[in-house]
Amino acid sequence: MTDEILAAVRRFWGFESLRPLQAEAIRAGLDRRDSLVVMPTGGGKSLCYQVPPAVAARTDIVVSPLIALMKDQVDALRACGYPAAALHSGMDAAQLRQAEREIAAGRHHLIFVAPERMLTPRFLELAARLRVSAFAIDEAHCISHWGHDFRPEYRQLAELKTRFPNASVHGYTATATERVRRDIIEQLGLEDPTVLVGSFDRPNLLYRVIPKVRVEAQVADTLRRHRGKAAIVYCVARKDTEAMAGYLAEHGVRAAHYHAGMDAEERRRTQDRFAAEEIDVVVATVAFGMGIDRSDIRCVIHSAIPKSVEHYQQETGRAGRDGLPAECVLFYSAADVLRWQGLIERSAEDADNPPEVIDNGRQLLEEMRRFATVVRCRHAALSAYFGENYSKPNCGACDLCLGEVVGAADSTVLAQKVLSCVARVEQRFGVEHVVDVLTGAGNERVRRWRHDQLSTYGLLKAMPRKTVTNLIYQLVDAGMLERTAGDRPVLRLNAASWEVMRGKRAVTLLEAKKPKAERTAMEADTWRDVDEALFESLRGLRREIATERGVPAYVILHDSTLRELARHKPTTIEALRNLRGVGERKLADFGARLIEHIAAYERNKRQVSNEMLTGDSGN
Ligand code: ADP
Ligand code: ZN
Questions:
Q1: pLDDT tens, position by position, 207-229
Q2: CATH topology assigned to domain 2-197
Q3: Ligand nearest to C-alpha 9
Q4: Which of 8, 58, 105, 507 is deepest in the core (most CB within 10 A)?
């Protein structure tokens, strides 16, 4: 059986081996034993439900939450010569009938449907007629309201087990804490399931958390390290996405915004342009990304803290799905945490929201804040959150392990200045006012209270306001300063504050330091021996082929395969067959074109260097 699995994987996808847990998950599908498979984004879940029906020559059903996600998967499968179809509301009646006819004839191994269609009488009848014996539930955490992406329509899937008592049900998800996992099993009614939980760590992702000062400039700076490459910038509010995209566009970045307030047509256009590589950066609210399978995303930026570690993991997870290095930057400011807290409190006033869900929301946010503020290897911290041990002493892929996080040299003195200013204004003012006094602002309120007479007035006037604000919030985060709750919060001193002021306690405040621009060792490794100009030129060819076929570029070939091509420069079909990521269908469809492209590139390069040697410019 193992041989048959590997043969299928080689023929359709051109992969030589399975990844951890894929074999076990595929086996559960073939044995038709219920399963719950938890793997991080990019871990290779889809292969687990794609292989069994191909090996067993049957038709399975995949329930998937978004049309875009289904379409991408079907396109990608067809490019591999794997027969699959989707039924969704974006198709007209004739297309639906045509697809249903093909399905009824048993032509497809996989059918993708949305949960609400799954339980329509028409579809149930089709499934019964086909004697469907296995269902895969993609993004299975959507069934649980403890997760971060609850979708009421998923709840109906509980019926699958009663309607198809002989079929197996397989849940797949990237994000599941223990509680969500138990909930999925219970809701789907899985019977004695095989539970496979992969490692959550994504070693190819480089995590950085940087104090937020002037976020637009900071984002533009970060993107400069990924010029011409795909990136997503997440913002909290819709209007933020528009402002940020505008700023980036002015600074020469091919960017567009995306949020749930745009009409469907406009959103689709942005998504299509991103898929077609006409734009490099999408600035979005969390509404964006689930439908995006572009595997070559090199950078994910959070311009504000997300509201849970699950969100963070899911959103950063969209980077580097091809396994190549990618960077994830979070711009942290405590003010954003307070903004979220405000939103949570407001939603608590809505009677429809059960108090335990609100409490859960508060707790999730607190965990996220802790992740952003704790001084600990980010890979280790994320692993711990998902209940895993992380054993590497240095991950080589986070700001802390790369030695980029440094305390300001005079941290303790800075902290003393801030705290003594809070004492001087008699612990009766908020952050804004304390910043005004420290930076020596000459406004009316400062004068009215005669705070321009204080010894702490203008003590930090050499620093930008944003930096001073950030320092104050760092002290709050570290528990060395209190900020009262309520409508008009004020800063108060606590026991720890006094210890700092008396010099009994040292403080480390972080500076917004620019990451080193060079490639990390891990990145450099993946570029070793790669002809980078050829790689870029192959990207062009990939776009061309994708346009001809009306599919997104990443459906054609992955970046990792393009790099292999630009490294080994194969000259024969046989040599090409041995490269990872080129299956039989792709070899037949455009293998010759790839080889010709590489040969032409090499000829051209030789010619140019000859001309340079002979000084003949070709006139
Ligand atoms: P997930 O659904 O878990 O987010 P995918 O199924 O999209 O992940 O897989 C992520 C990437 O890994 C895809 O580009 C896929 O082609 C690749 N991949 C999956 N399995 C293997 C394998 N056994 N060998 C090489 N690449 C693989
Ligand atoms: Zn680390």
A1: 999 988 889 999 999 999 999 99
A2: Rossmann fold (3.40.50)
A3: 1
A4: 507
Give domain limits for the chain.
Answer: 2-197, 205-402, 407-511, 527-617
- Considering only residues 65 and 177, tell me which one the structure prediction assigns the higher pLDDT: 65
**Mean pLDDT of the region 338-351:** 86
Which residue's entry shows tokens 């480390």? 508
- How many H-runs (helices) and E-runs (strands) does the chain carry? 27, 15
Domain covering 407-511: architecture: Orthogonal Bundle (1.10)
Distance 574 CA to ligand 1 centre (A): 24
What is the token pair recorded at 132? 């469907």
| Closest residue to atom 20 of ligand 1, CA basis | 44
Nearest protein Cα to ligand 1, atom 12? 44
Q: Rounded to 5 degrees, what are φ and ψ at 602?
A: -65, -45
Closest ligand relative to 317 C-alpha: 1
Q: Which atom of ligand 1 is nearest to the CA of 9?
A: 23
pLDDT average, residue stretch 333-344 = 88
Residues 6+ apart with CB under 8 A from 300: 231, 232, 233, 234, 315, 316, 318, 319, 326, 327, 328, 329
For tokens 């001087």, the residue is: 424
Rounded CA separation 222/213 (Å): 14
How far is it, in rounded angstroms, from Cα 431 to Cα 414? 16
Mark out the alpha helices in 317-410 (DSSP H runs). Answer: 334-348, 355-373, 378-385
CATH code of the region 527-617: 1.10.150.80
pLDDT for position 59: 96
Instruction: Give me the sheet containing 84-87, strands edge to edge.
Output: 84-87, 110-113, 60-63, 134-137, 168-173, 35-38, 194-197
The atom of ligand 1 lying closest to the CA of 19 is 23
CA distance 34 to 28: 7
Each residue's pLDDT tens digit, 463-512: 888 888 888 988 887 889 998 877 788 999 999 999 999 999 888 887 76
Q: Which of 528, 47, 555, 44 is nearest to 323 (CA)?
A: 44
Angle at 600 between CA 598 and CA 601, to 5 degrees: 65
Fold match between 205-402 and 407-511? Answer: no
Q: Is 317 in the pocket of ligand 1 (CB under 6 A)?
A: no
Q: How far is C-alpha 546 from the chain's CA centre?
A: 24
Question: In the CATH scheme, what is the homologous superfamily, with its name and number, of domain 205-402?
Answer: P-loop containing nucleotide triphosphate hydrolases (3.40.50.300)
Please work out whether the CB of residue 295 comes within 6 Å of at least one atom of ligand 1.
yes
Asked if pLDDT for residue 411 goes beyond 70, the answer is: yes
Cβ neighbours of residue 132 closer than 8 Å, sequence gap 6 or more: 59, 60, 61, 164, 167
Q: Are strands 60-63 and 110-113 parallel, antiparallel or unpaired?
A: parallel
Length of the chain: 619
Tens-digit pLDDT profile for residues 58-70: 999 999 998 878 9
